[in-house]
Amino acid sequence: MKKLSARRRHPLAALVVLLFALAATGGLYAAFAPADKAEAEPVAQSLAIEEGKKLYAVGCASCHGTGGQGTTDGPSLVGVGSAAVDFQVGTGRMPLQQPGAQAPDKPNVYTQAEIDQLAAYIASLGPGPVTPTEEQYSPEGADIANGGELFRTNCAQCHNFTGQGGALTEGKYAPDLEDVDPKHIYEAMQTGPQNMPSFPDQVLPEQEKQDIIAYLDTVNSEDSETPGGFALGGFGPVTEGLFAWTFGLGAMIVVAIWVAARTAKAKKS
Fold first, then answer.
1. What are the backbone dihedrals phi and psi of residue 34, each rounded to the nearest 5 degrees, phi first?
2. Is the CB of residue 186 less than 8 Å from the CB of residue 116?
3. Which of 99, 252, 255, 258 is 20 to 30 A from 154 in CA distance terms?
4. Which parts of the chain are beta strand (E)?
5. CB under 8 Å to 116, separation ≥6 — which residues?
6. Fold of 40-131
């Protein structure tokens, strides 16, 4: 009996029990903790959609229809994605102040949390471009030279060479891109708002979008200098040459007339 009791109270038995308890606790946590997290995310998303639906009913449904199907006063929002909502509402273009050739940017009327809720509801109507993360639109480490080449090829025709905007037809215009949030520039390239064509990742990959944003950030920064003095709207050498010809040639004509008048006066005397 003495030997059996000693075997049952062996010190290793307590260690084995402790290790077993720790392994069981870790296994239970691994089994149940991820499930709780996975369940919490859909619940939070559902709540955001419900709140967004309420905001939509008050501020958007009168133009875009009760289910986002569109009306004669506003286009369908099915499939535009959360990126379009974040851009249009985040820049104040929507809700539209009054009908016109183009929706101008203005101070927004929603908080970012409300914009996210609206975006969640619109995204639930159909798949579309997703609101980018900060990592996607950050200009840090991007290729500025490549961004300049891409911008001149794809964007300068409307926004001019430094993104200062320009007039289009029928009262429309390409807006000034100075001081525009990089996220909104990225979203505009994704979604093609109003008169602008869209540049999805298949056409303009994420890295190239970042390069363009970095280029605009550089040419419109306070540290950038305009070679030759006045920027003249950033329209480039054609405009600068026209300016020089107009005023330079005009000055030469004035001088020539003055010299001719002085010469004629001298001959008479």
1. -60, -35
2. no
3. 99
4. 166-167, 173-174
5. 48, 86, 131
6. Cytochrome Bc1 Complex; Chain D, domain 2 (1.10.760)
Rounded to whole angstroms, the Cα distance separating 240 from 162 reads 14
- 198-234 pLDDT tens trace: 999 999 999 999 999 999 999 887 665 555 555 655 5
Do 216 and 163 meet the contact criterion of CB atoms below 8 Å apart?
yes
pLDDT category at 260 given cuts 50, 70, 90 is confident
Domain ranges of the chain: 40-131, 142-239
User: How many CA atoms, within 13 angstroms, populate the side-chain half-sphere of residue 12?
Assistant: 1
Could you report the per-residue pLDDT of 163-180, keeping only the tens digit for each?
Answer: 888 889 888 999 999 899
Can you give the pLDDT at residue 44?
85
Smallest CA-to-CA distance from 105 within 6, 173, 27 is with 173
Record the tokens describing residue 47, joined without a space. 């709540």
CATH topology of domain 142-239: Cytochrome Bc1 Complex; Chain D, domain 2 (1.10.760)
Percent of the chain residues topping a pLDDT of 90: 54
